[in-house]
């Protein structure tokens, strides 16, 4: 259990190699290219891609998100208006009239 130069293949006593180099012959015909770190542009096009990718994702999800939000907003605004009316002077008077009609046998408020 030593370092990297210890023979992995104990039967033959040979160092097989690290990951990606397991003792086989080097491959031929593979060309690799490198560019200097000073010449690379790792953030090239990031702002452009972020804007258009965000728009694409928003457009794809808009029909799933906007109708429930609009429905919730309309329901909440209706409930707030109704609550304000029922807690106002006219609303309390109207509610008292409807309660009196209901006890006198009139129509029940629905």
Task: Outline the fold blueprint.
Elements: H1 46-86, H2 89-103
How would you describe this structure in keywords?
110 residues; mainly alpha; 51% helix
Query: Poorly predicted ranges (pLDDT <50, ≥5 residues)?
Result: none
| Separation of the first and last Cα atoms | 83 Å
- E-strand count: 0
Q: Give the integer mean of the pLDDT values.
A: 81
Rg (C-alpha, Å): 38 Å
Strand content: under 5%
Structural class: mainly alpha
Shape: elongated
Helix content: 40-55%
Total of DSSP H or I helical runs spanning 4+ residues:
2
Q: Output the helix-strand order.
A: HH
Describe the biggest sheet? none
Characterization of this structure:
The structure is a single chain. With 110 residues, the protein is mostly helical. It has two helices and no strands. The protein has helices at residues 46-86, 89-103. The mean pLDDT is 81.
